[in-house]
Predict the structure.
Amino acid sequence: MSARTLILGAIGALALSLATAAARPATAVANTAEKYFGCPTGYSFQVSGSSARCYVAGTASTANIFCGVGYVKAIDQFNGGRDACQHQMTNAVGNYTCPSGYSSTARPGPDVCTKPATPSILAPAVAKYL
């Protein structure tokens, strides 16, 4: 075989491979290159250096204060002190309680019982495509 025949054969093979590559759909190649991982709904995507995480802040829940049997919430400390309960018959003053797991929060106006929730952190694992 001559050098001319080898060169023409190589050019023909190259043209044939380019033609078949152009005939393939571009989406099949693009999907694998454009896949990334994100966060579930409600989580924010956070990056620090080369690390990433999905984060949602903890929110505190509130509950009403509870006065003992025979007591009503009658003394409201507007100056930020702790509120009190007053007995209906004897006018005795007593403290209120909060449901289990809650702690009292004294504030101007009516006091509340609060229960903090811990923040949630996940690894980005939801597959997404551009």
